[in-house]
Amino acid sequence: MTINADPQELAKFGELAHRWWDPESDFKPLHQINPLRLAWIQQLSPLAGKRVVDVGCGGGILSDSMARAGAQVLGIDLSTKPLRVAELHAMEAGTEGVEYREVAVEALAAEQPGSFDVVTCMEMLEHVPDPASVVRACATLVKPGGWVFLSTLNRNAKAFLLAIVGAEYVMNMLPKGTHEYARFLKPSELAQFCRDAGLDLQASRGLTYNPVTQRYSLGSDTDVNYLMACRRPG
């Protein structure tokens, strides 16, 4: 199986792995938005007792919080160093109900189809060569009636100005080169990937940042960052 990953992307996040759990580091935005996305997932599909796979888990920020919410979580990624950081953090923090594995989502889908109540894939689709393949694999992994949660970046001038020029070069919220504009996905494109994979779109939300209050919030503005919730028909 051809691995659906960009070696440069894996190396980039590998080099930053030691900073993953520092809330004031390059990953500060992930720490800030994590309570918002966790609450949204919980609202639509309460996690207690659920079996969850977190695709592209990185250092485990979302995986860890879902386990603390009562889920049995498998975090998967293809970048070795962040996975080791995730495992170390779980050990040091005493987080139960979470494990990590270096495996491609497509390979896991072939191995364990229909095995998970919830599948999450956050801030990853814009980093892979074939995002549609990831969505198909997520749809394969989830049980009938289960939920798939996705998030990524819109592709338009506003997203380019705010997510790349603003966040990476002006405000230094993210390391320069974190994102490649051509890989951003319009909501219509992601929605089509979901439909093609047999998923029913249930809800979408936008994630916005207020530079004055330095806070993120969920709302209806999907111009830059957005989330989608889908279900596999039962």
TrEMBL record:
<dbReference type="GO" id="GO:0102208">
    <property type="term" value="F:2-polyprenyl-6-hydroxyphenol methylase activity"/>
</dbReference>
<dbReference type="GO" id="GO:0032259">
    <property type="term" value="P:methylation"/>
</dbReference>
<feature type="binding site">
    <location>
        <position position="77"/>
    </location>
    <ligand>
        <name>S-adenosyl-L-methionine</name>
    </ligand>
</feature>
<feature type="binding site">
    <location>
        <position position="56"/>
    </location>
    <ligand>
        <name>S-adenosyl-L-methionine</name>
    </ligand>
</feature>
<dbReference type="Pfam" id="PF13489">
    <property type="entry name" value="Methyltransf_23"/>
</dbReference>
<comment type="pathway">
    <text>Cofactor biosynthesis; ubiquinone biosynthesis.</text>
</comment>
<feature type="binding site">
    <location>
        <position position="122"/>
    </location>
    <ligand>
        <name>S-adenosyl-L-methionine</name>
    </ligand>
</feature>
<keyword id="KW-0808">Transferase</keyword>
<comment type="similarity">
    <text>Belongs to the methyltransferase superfamily. UbiG/COQ3 family.</text>
</comment>
<comment type="function">
    <text>O-methyltransferase that catalyzes the 2 O-methylation steps in the ubiquinone biosynthetic pathway.</text>
</comment>
<dbReference type="InterPro" id="IPR010233">
    <property type="entry name" value="UbiG_MeTrfase"/>
</dbReference>
<dbReference type="GO" id="GO:0061542">
    <property type="term" value="F:3-demethylubiquinol 3-O-methyltransferase activity"/>
</dbReference>
<feature type="binding site">
    <location>
        <position position="37"/>
    </location>
    <ligand>
        <name>S-adenosyl-L-methionine</name>
    </ligand>
</feature>
<keyword id="KW-0949">S-adenosyl-L-methionine</keyword>
<dbReference type="GO" id="GO:0010420">
    <property type="term" value="F:polyprenyldihydroxybenzoate methyltransferase activity"/>
</dbReference>
<keyword id="KW-0831">Ubiquinone biosynthesis</keyword>
<protein>
    <recommendedName>
        <fullName>Ubiquinone biosynthesis O-methyltransferase</fullName>
        <ecNumber>2.1.1.222</ecNumber>
        <ecNumber>2.1.1.64</ecNumber>
    </recommendedName>
</protein>
<dbReference type="InterPro" id="IPR029063">
    <property type="entry name" value="SAM-dependent_MTases_sf"/>
</dbReference>
<keyword id="KW-0489">Methyltransferase</keyword>
